[in-house]
Write a structure and sequence with these properties.
This protein has helices at 7-16, 21-28, 32-41, 49-85, 90-114, 119-138. With 145 residues, it is mainly α. The chain is elongated.
Length: 145
């Protein structure tokens, strides 16, 4: 009589050996959600460091793409303004102005996604570092007269 391996035991063994959740699912044929549940029941966790790094890289790439697109939108606004300045009749003025408005709105929405740098957070961080340095140098942090 041939014994078939217990898929739960396989999942736990592979997870403990350091394989990722999706890899365990591929190797065992067990759905990824089931792999997660089996591993959690066994007290095994998966290292999410690679996933976090990949997500951070995608966020950075998307921000860079938005910056390029924002620059291209500014170029398109310049081109539309050129059309406005060269308009020969009211119809041309209307369409050029409408294009400028749409492009400027698109640019504003795109820039708002990433927003300006948070200068207040930087200032708070600087003040916190200064406070920590003073407390470290003077001990208790109490103000001396």
């Amino acid at each position: 009589m041939t014994s078939t391996p217990d898929p739960r035991a396989q999942v736990v063994d592979l997870a403990r050996a350091g394989h990722g959740r999706n890899e365990v699912a591929r190797l065992t044929g067990v759905p990824a959600t089931t792999v997660s549940r089996i591993a959690a029941d066994a007290g095994v966790t998966f290292d999410r460091t690679a996933t976090a790094a990949a997500t951070e890289a995608r966020v950075i790439d998307a921000k860079a793409r938005r910056a390029v697109l924002g620059g291209q939108l500014l170029e398109d606004i310049d081109e539309a303004r050129e059309h406005l300045h060269n308009a020969v009749d009211a119809k041309d003025v209307f369409f050029a102005a409408k294009a400028i408005d749409a492009l400027a709105s698109a640019h504003s929405r795109l820039v708002a996604i990433d927003g300006p740098p948070d200068e207040s957070a930087e200032a708070k961080s600087l003040l916190g570092a200064l406070h920590d340095a003073l407390v470290g140098k003077h001990g208790s942090g109490e103000v001396q007269p």
